[in-house]
Design a protein that fits this description.
Blueprint: E1 4-5, E2 10-11, H1 20-27, H2 34-46, H3 50-63, H4 68-80, H5 84-97, H6 106-122, H7 126-139, H8 144-150
Antiparallel strand pairs: 1-2
Helix pairs in contact: 1-2, 2-3, 2-4, 3-4, 4-5, 5-6, 6-7, 7-8
Length: 151
């Protein structure tokens, strides 16, 4: 068995994408752990199997409803499936769980706000999008993501 790089989802020796079933068998899959669903969902997401990733991220949120990472991933899967209301709802909850007044959360909340603003723009809710980008830039003035979306 080749060693796997879970961060990129690729085999260290090749550029072959890590398949979700490889993740499940090579590393074990504990259906009681949200983390297992997040990791497998990320594999599906990188394969652009957004419906499958959405199902795994939903299960992760079901197991750990207050996990901001799971909610962030759920929002991204919803976004790619053009389910913008669901994407915004998941992102709202993720932002709520990461208070921006805590310094270590500022950059991640700024990114979440930028992503939420982009989803709002896709729904043609421009005033909400602009307000979100303004808040993201207030939290992280160096945020390239918020700066790009605000133009």
């Amino acid at each position: 068995m080749k060693p796997w790089n879970l961060v990129t989802g690729t085999s260290i020796n090749t550029s072959t994408k890590l398949q979700p079933n490889h993740y499940s068998t090579a590393f074990g899959f504990d259906s009681t752990k949200a983390h297992a669903y997040v990791k497998r969902g990320e594999c599906y997401f990188h394969l652009e199997a957004y419906k499958d990733s959405l199902n795994d991220f939903k299960k992760a949120v079901e197991l750990e409803p207050d996990n901001p990472k799971s909610l962030d991933r759920l929002a991204n899967a919803n976004f790619h499936l053009r389910q913008f209301d669901d994407a915004v709802a998941a992102m709202e909850k993720a932002v709520e769980l990461n208070p921006p007044e805590v310094d270590r959360f500022k950059k991640s909340v700024a990114t979440m706000l930028s992503n939420r603003a982009f989803a709002y723009s896709q729904e043609k809710k421009y005033s909400e999008a602009i307000a979100g980008l303004d808040k993201a830039l207030d939290l992280d003035p160096d945020s390239n993501w918020a700066t790009i979306h605000s133009r």
